[in-house]
Design brief:
Layout: E1 3-4, H1 12-25, H2 29-48, E2 55-59, E3 64-74, E4 83-85, H3 86-92, E5 102-106, H4 112-116, H5 118-145, E6 151-159, E7 163-168, E8 171-176, E9 191-200, E10 209-213, H6 217-227, H7 229-233, E11 236-244, E12 248-255, H8 262-267, H9 272-280, E13 285-290, H10 295-302, E14 310-314, E15 319-324, H11 329-333, H12 338-347, E16 350-355, H13 367-370, H14 372-380, H15 386-391, H16 394-398, H17 405-419, H18 427-476
Parallel strand pairs: 1-5, 3-4, 12-13, 15-16
Antiparallel strand pairs: 2-3, 3-5, 6-7, 6-9, 7-8, 9-10, 11-12, 14-15
Length: about 500
């Protein structure tokens, strides 16, 4: 029958210390208990051997730790982790034991340094401390990963050249320079609101890098949710946002209730709702417009406060040519092109503004700049004027012999300069996309052409084979056997 040696031990102070750690650092007590059990298991194995299988009984509520090491009684010990000599057992207890019995030793923690040695205790302490730090880091990572897209309120505690460090619930979060509103000036110890944009970490145990932002478009969306109950409840939906942080923003909204005006709901009585958001963003101008699934209507609204005369859209290439009255051109463009740039981002269309009444120019006027050969190729594509060239599909233009993406951009700039108009911002990207699509179409065409050529070759061989059989049949009296029948045995 298994027996165990006993000894009165006071261990409440050890347990109380770890309970306090769990409480202060917000770590689950069961997790701390598991790590504490692992530490004592490590101590036992370091002292007795890696094969040792100690039983750890840990009660966090009562502050009690008991460690038992079962070993087999033998005459000669070969494995101290699993065996104990009969003479050693007889020295420790007066109870009768025989070889083959199980002896359960209770390991004393009354003088832990004497039991395990100072170096081993220090090693176990370092391992446990590292594990607790890893748990903390993982908890922080999981906590803020769930907060991505949410607004948090913190206190600025350090302002550096490239970022600002903020304390939130005793955790450090970081707002890089590119996530700050350029027009704002930040002060140490000031309270600040920002959205959790991203949580990074190099390894599963490294300290998480929590990135917050006031420049992100989602921050503006969350402010609308805070200030506009209809947005929070889902009656009004924000369909798109375009921002130049600290300067201007355009927000497209729609309503799922015919009785609710989405723009009016966002602005509020006497502008009280929108003004609260503007104050939070340090005076950023916000244009709220009603979204439409009709691109012409949506683009016209996005260019407000300018009034437009006519809009031509290319849905496939997401481009739009907008005719604007002469007195509305400056409004449509905005300061440094801001209005048309934000409208393009909001709608997803590359917008080209054209003055109303501006005359078109025959392409022959640009012949010297284009070069005679390229000019003639463009004319053959039925593009006769400068406006027709600007409105033409990019893939159509890139199919013209001698036309490259770079040359296309140069010609567009030449024409726009002549009209005194601006190019839309992402022209290079859109032309590159068209070039990629064109190359893919060509590759598919080549593959199909190759397959057709192979079919023709196979047909030629079939015809030659038939002709050769016919010739042999006529000249030598050869009759080919039916391959579906077994060969004759003659």
């Amino acid at each position: 029958m298994p027996r165990k040696s006993t000894q009165k031990i006071d261990k409440k102070a050890i347990i109380a210390a770890f309970v306090e750690i769990a409480k202060e650092r917000g770590i689950d007590r069961d997790l701390i208990q598991g790590k504490l059990e692992d530490m004592f298991r490590l101590l036992v194995r370091k002292k007795y051997g890696e094969d040792a299988e100690p039983d750890i009984v840990l009660n966090m509520d009562r502050g009690d730790i008991e460690i038992y090491l079962p070993r087999t009684v033998v005459n000669y010990v070969l494995n101290p982790a699993k065996e104990i000599s009969l003479s050693e057992v007889q020295r420790r207890t007066d109870e009768p034991y025989d070889v083959g019995d199980e002896y359960i030793e209770e390991i004393s923690l009354e003088n832990i340094s004497q039991e395990f040695g100072r170096q081993l205790i220090m090693y176990a302490k370092q391992v446990l401390s590292q594990q607790i730090r890893d748990i903390e880091r993982n908890n922080i990572y999981q906590e803020y990963e769930q907060k991505i897209g949410e607004i948090i309120v913190g206190e600025i505690y350090q302002i550096r050249r490239n970022d600002i460090l903020i304390l939130h619930n005793k955790n450090e979060v970081r707002m890089p320079l590119e996530e700050q509103i350029p027009t704002e000036r930040y002060r140490k110890n000031a309270t600040i609101r920002a959205i959790v944009k991203e949580v990074r970490r190099a390894t599963p145990t490294s300290t998480p890098d929590i990135i917050v932002s006031r420049a992100d478009e989602r921050f503006l969306a969350r402010l609308f949710e805070l200030e506009v109950p209809e947005v929070y409840d889902g009656v009004v939906e924000i369909k798109a946002i375009a921002r130049d942080p600290g300067e201007r923003a355009k927000v497209a909204v729609t309503s799922y209730d015919d009785r609710v005006d989405p723009v009016g709901a966002c602005i509020g009585m006497k502008g009280i709702r929108i003004n609260a958001i503007v104050r939070e963003l340090s005076g950023e101008t916000i244009d709220v417009i009603e979204w439409s699934d009709d691109p012409v209507t949506f683009i016209a609204r996005a260019l407000s406060p300018a009034k437009v005369r006519q809009i031509q859209v290319d849905i496939e290439n997401k481009t739009a040519v907008v005719v604007v009255p002469d007195d509305q051109v400056s409004l449509a463009i905005g300061r440094n092109g801001q209005n048309v740039r934000l409208a393009s981002r909001l709608t997803g269309y590359a917008i080209t503004l054209v003055k109303e009444g501006s005359e078109d120019i025959e392409l022959i006027e640009f012949r010297d700049d284009l070069g005679r050969e390229l000019y003639e190729q463009i004319i053959e594509a039925h593009i006769d004027t400068a406006r027709e060239f600007l409105a033409a599909d990019f893939k159509t233009l890139l199919r013209i012999p001698g036309m490259t993406p770079t040359r296309l951009m140069e010609i567009r700039k030449l024409i726009l300069d002549e009209f005194g108009e601006q190019e839309y911002p992402d022209i290079a990207e859109r032309i590159a996309i068209a070039q990629t699509q064109l190359e893919e179409e060509r590759d598919q065409s080549h593959r199909k052409s190759g397959a057709d050529d192979l079919d023709e070759i196979e047909e030629m061989f079939d015809e030659l084979q038939t002709e050769s059989y016919d010739e042999l049949d006529e000249e030598d009296g050869f009759i080919p056997e039916d391959p579906s029948k077994p060969p004759s045995q003659e």
